[in-house]
Amino acid sequence: MSETTTPPQTHPLVDGTVGPGCKKVDPIVVADGVVRQFGGLTAVDVEHVEIPRGAITALIGPNGAGKTTFFNLLTGFDRPNKGRWSFEGQSLAHMPSHKVARRGMVRTFQLTKSLGRLTVLQNMLLGARDQRGEGIFAAILRPLWKAQEEANTVKADTLLARFKLDAKREDYAASLSGGQRKLLEMARALMSDPTLVMLDEPMAGVNPALTQSLLDHVLGLKEEGMTVLFVEHDMHMVRHISDWVIVMAEGRIVAEGPPETIMQNQAVVDAYLGAHHDTDLGTLTGQQVAQIHEEAASEVEPEPSDAQGTTTDASADARTDADREGER
Ligand SMILES: Nc1ncnc2c1ncn2[C@@H]1O[C@H](COP(=O)(O)OP(=O)(O)OP(=O)(O)O)[C@@H](O)[C@H]1O
């Protein structure tokens, strides 16, 4: 009797064989040996990963897998214990977040950081790159930055119109719904003309009425030539808009592949859904995955929150947004 073997998988984005840590034909980010520990807990332990340029990549995994921590490390909002990574071929390790953004790698936050007491327009202007009026000499030489400020305002207005937030221009950001804040985050990120846009749970707290619009905006970023990397639990979004999916569990990259195959991968299903391991991820709607997460969450003790705005706290706040959205 002859044994049946699965032939090695290939993919146009991949140089070689598809698998965890596989090489990409044209990587925009390459990370090696990135480790982040919190006390005795290893939150991130990524041996090797490459993000393909010009594609939409989803980073998925169960709660606590290390996705947000990995985002924070790549973008300079946190420091690793060890490891190195490059963006566009240049090392970014130890580079502070504002310099990372200036290089063209911008991110949004799971906890929307739109400054509530600023207007929508003011939030947008904060996202602009190289604001000349910030230096003392430039502040004295008003004409130098006046023209730039005007150009930034025109750019902000164009983006606000594109994201259908123009009617909210003068409103305080705090008055926006959860979904509108997500749109503002994305629009503000575009103020700096990024090459790589990193979105942390873009669907969290978004009203179903805004879901399609948000998906279309993310697809629009790719059409404009940007690379997108997003963390998301919403399997509908992962399945429908991503070109590539990377799966993390317990800090490591455990699987990679195109969405249609990754969601039927047994290791992924086991890592992601735990007790629901007999379920095909690819057949689940976002709502069903959310329900499974809720059931799982109700089986564990709630984590204590603190007042410092830590990652744990941020997740709690995102849920509050979702709740508020649901009440509307
Ligand atoms: N500042 C911190 N201090 C201590 N532990 C932390 C800190 N930030 C994250 N952790 C821990 O590191 C692990 C990874 O957390 P992380 O938020 O990166 O996971 P995640 O995959 O983004 O989860 P989720 O999907 O729930 O957002 C978790 O066990 C978390 O409790």
Automatic annotation (TrEMBL):
Q: Which CDD domains match?
A: ABC_Mj1267_LivG_branched
Per the record, what is one GO cellular component?
plasma membrane
The keyword ATP-binding appears for this protein: yes
Specify the species: Agrococcus carbonis
Pfam family name, one: ABC_tran
Q: Which UniProt keywords apply?
A: ATP-binding, Nucleotide-binding, Transport
Q: List the InterPro entries.
A: AAA+_ATPase, ABC_AA/LPS_Transport, ABC_transporter-like_ATP-bd, ABC_transporter-like_CS, BCA_ABC_TP_C, P-loop_NTPase
The ranges of region (Disordered) come to 291-328
- One of the record's GO molecular function terms: ATP binding
Q: Which SUPFAM superfamilies match?
A: P-loop containing nucleoside triphosphate hydrolases
Report what the protein is called: Amino acid/amide ABC transporter ATP-binding protein 1, HAAT family
Q: Which residues form the ABC transporter domain?
A: 29-275
The chain's coiled-coil residues are none
Bias class Basic and acidic residues marks the residues at: 316-328
